[in-house]
Design brief:
about 50% helix
Length: about 70
């Protein structure tokens, strides 16, 4: 389920996500697809994208698995 976080906790989580994404090879200007439910994790990922300078691209949730693999 979703959890409650304050802004400082969200910021810290977003910074850790941004660092993890950078360590995985995501660079400023890259596009990252994320198909996930709305909630604190999505919000943290959205902030991480701002920190890292990459674009978070939510794909169409109606796409089939084979279509998602081609993104």
């Amino acid at each position: 389920g979703d959890r409650r976080v304050d802004f400082a906790g969200l910021r810290d989580h977003a910074r850790r996500l941004a660092a993890s994404m950078q360590a995985a090879g995501i660079r400023r200007g890259d596009r990252v697809a994320a198909l996930m439910a709305p909630g604190t994790e999505f919000l943290a990922l959205l902030h991480a994208a701002q920190i890292g300078g990459w674009a978070l691209v939510p794909p169409n949730p109606r796409l089939r698995r084979d279509e998602l693999r081609r993104l």
